[in-house]
C-alpha cells in the first residue's frame, strides 16, 4: 500500500467518526460465518451515501488500495473478507427503505436493509417480499442479491432473487461512475422493469460478489401478503421418489402449487428423506386444491402426510430463528450449490459414500430446496472452534473437490478460502469473459481484489 | 485472565449477527452510540478471542468499547436463542482484566468504585446525608424486613423514596432500615471491574444483615436487587443467603393483589411504562409492574413499541451514565422519542437509574412528561400524597 495517511484521506470524506484503523475495531471484521482464515483490513469506513463511496473509490484508485465490501458479515465462503490489506466498507449505515410503491408493487431499499426489517415494514401495508433469506435478522438484501442468494420461502415459484425479483440496481463502478440498470437507466422512466434498454446489466452484477461494483440501491418486486398457507411434511424412503416429487413440483404444477420444498437427510439415517412443503395462496379454496393435489401425489406413491410439527420447527425455530443453531458448534456449509433435479443423485452419493461411509463423518446433514429446474443443495455441519478447525477444513476441501469436479455449480465463489480455486480451474469462455469485464471496469483491480478471480490472473 | 473462564462461550460465537438486530443500530445502545462492529456482542467475542489468542491486547483506547457497554443484555437476550453466550459475564470479566492488568479504565468508573469503598456510597457523601431521605419516618429495628433503597434512591430521589416507604408502611409492612449503617451494595465493584474489595465487602454485609436478623430485603433498585440475589451468592460461592430479596415491583403487585391499600382516587392520565433492563431481561419481571399500573383507577395505559425483552435501554446502565455521559444522553433521548410516540403524560418505571436518566432526558427536551416511580402512582391513588406530583412541571424538593 502506498505510504500515505489513508485515515486522514478517508476522514476528509466521511468525517473522523466513521473511519477507524484501531486494531480492536479491525479484528471483528476479520471473519465471516465460514471457517475462512482471518483476514484483516487496514481501515474500516462506514459510508452513508453513494457519493461518499465514489470518493473512497477515487482515493483507492489513486493510491492502489483494494476496497472490500461488507454487509451483515455472514458470508458462508470468504466472499467479503479482505484478501489483502485494504479498506473495508462497512455498509451497515446504508440500511434504509427508500420507497414502497404500492401501485407498481416495488420496493426500493439501500443494500444493508435486512430482510426482517423489509418484511416488517411491508407487512404493515399488507405486502411482502416473500422470497427472503434464511438466517435471521442480519441477512441484508444487498449482500444476498450480490451473492445471487435465495431463501426458504417461495423458491419453487420464484427461484433465487436474481431470477425475477430484482427489478433495478444502482451501482457505483470501480472508477466511481454511478450507474442504474433496467428502466431506471432511462430518464424519467422509473424503476419498473428489469429487462429493457438492451442487455440485462442487473444480471451482470447479481452474483458478482461486488467485484464489478458497489451496490447502493436495489428495487425489488413485492406482492400482496398471501393470507393462507399450509405446511406439509412427509418422509420418503427413496431418493428417486424425492426426485420425482421435485419434477412434479417443477413441471406442470410446481410453480402454482408450492412455494417452498425442503429436503433434509440426517447422517445417522441416510435413507430417510424428510420432505417439508409450504403451500401459499390468496384464497382458501386455492390452498385446499393445491394441498389436495400434493396429498394425491403422495398417496399414489405410497406416502402419507405427517404431523407438520417438525417442519414448523425447522422453518420457524431453526431456519429463521437460528434457535440452538450453535449448540453443537459453529456452522460450515460445503458441497453446496446448484444442481439439476435428476443430478442430485450425484451429490447425495458423494455425501453418503464419501463423507458418511468412507470418511466416517456423521455430523453433517444433507439438505436442499427445489428451485425452478434445479436444487439448491448443501451439506452442513457444526464443529468446535478452534480444535476441530483443521479437520473440518480438510474434510470440506476434499468433498468440495469431488463435488465441483462433477455437475455441482458452486453457490458462491468468494476468495482463496472459498470456492475461487474451483472457478479459476475451469478455463471456460464464461470465465474469460468475466475476467475481461473485470479488467475493463476495474483496471487496477481495486474492488474485492482476490475475490472470485485470483489477483495474478488480472495482471 | 478472567476471560479464560469463558473460553468455550467466546469460541461458540457463530458470528450470526443476531445480536445486532434487524435495524443494525436500534437493538444495542452501544452500537447506537459507537457504530462499529466492535460494539456488538459478535464484535466483543472477536476481541475476546483475539486477546485469548494473543493477537490483541487490552489497551486504554479499547476501554470505550468495553466500558461503553450499557450491560442492558439485549444482545444476550438474542443470543439465548442461537449460542447462549453470556455476553454480560464476559464483559464484566473483560473489565476485571483491564483492572488486573493495570490498563487505565475510565476515571469516573474508578471513582465510583473508590467512592463506594471509601465513603459507603457512590456520591462520597456522609452517612447522615445517605439517610436524610428517611426524615420523619419511623422504622422497626429488628423487624426482619429490611428496606434497602441503595445509593441513587437515597441521594437523588429523596422524596420518591420517602413516598415509597409510606406506601409500604400504609400497606402494613413493618420495615427495618439501616440508617447510618447503610452502605452501597457493591455494584460499582463489578460494574467497574475493581473487584479487589468485593469479596470482603459482600461477606461483611451478609454478616451484618444476618446479625441484625434480616430475613427479607425490599429494594426499589434493580442493581441492588440483583446484587443480593445473584452477585452475592456468586462471589461467596454459595447457593443461597440467609435472607431473601424482593424488588418493589413484586411487593407492589402483592399489595394490589391482596387489597392491602384502598385505591380511592382516580388518576386520569395517560401512562406508559419503561422496562428496566435489570428486572426485565435479567429477571423477567415484566408483568408485575404492568399489573400494578393497570389496577390503578382512571389510568389509561399505553405501551411503547419496544417493550419487555425488546425494550431499549434508558441509557443509564453499565456505569455508562458516569463514564461516557454523552453516549448515555443520546440513548435516553432516543428512548424519550419512543415515549413521546405514545402521547403519554406520565412515564412510569421502577428503577432509580432509569428514573434519573429519563428525567434528565425530559428536562433536556423540555417535554411535558413527568417521570414517576410506580409507587408514586400508587401513593396518589391511595391518597398518601397529593396529585400535584403528577404535574409535568412539579419539582420535588430534592
List the helices and strands of chain B in order.
Answer: HHHHHHHHEHHHHEHEHEHEHHEHEH
Uncertain segments of chain B are: none
For the secondary structure, the number of strands of chain B is 7
> Main β-sheet of chain A, in a few words?
7 strands, antiparallel
* SS content category of chain B: alpha/beta
Specify the structural class of chain A. alpha+beta
Distance between the termini of chain A: 17 Å
Main sheet strand line-up of chain B: 5-4-6-7
Shape of chain B: globular
Q: What's the level 1 CATH class of the largest domain in chain A?
A: Alpha Beta
CATH topology of the largest domain in chain A: Uridine Diphospho-n-acetylenolpyruvylglucosamine Reductase, domain 3
Give the integer mean of the pLDDT values of chain A: 91
Cα radius of gyration of chain B in angstroms: 21 Å
Structure description:
The complex is a heterodimer of chains A (459) and B (398). Chain A is α+β, with helices and mostly antiparallel strands. Chain A is built from 16 helices and 18 strands. Chain A has a seven-stranded antiparallel β-sheet, sandwiched between helices. Chain A starts with 5 loop residues before the first helix and ends in an 18-residue tail after the last helix. The model of chain A has no long low-confidence stretch (mean pLDDT 91). By secondary structure, chain B is an alpha/beta fold. The chains are: A alpha+beta (459), B alpha/beta (398). The interface between A and B is large, with 45 and 34 residues.
Q: Which structural traits does this protein have?
A:
A: about 450 residues, alpha+beta, Uridine Diphospho-n-acetylenolpyruvylglucosamine Reductase, domain 3, Vanillyl-alcohol Oxidase, Chain A, domain 3, 2 domains, about 30% helix, B: about 400 residues, alpha/beta, Fumarate Reductase Iron-sulfur Protein, Chain B, domain 2, Rossmann fold, 3 domains, four-stranded parallel beta sheet, 19 helices
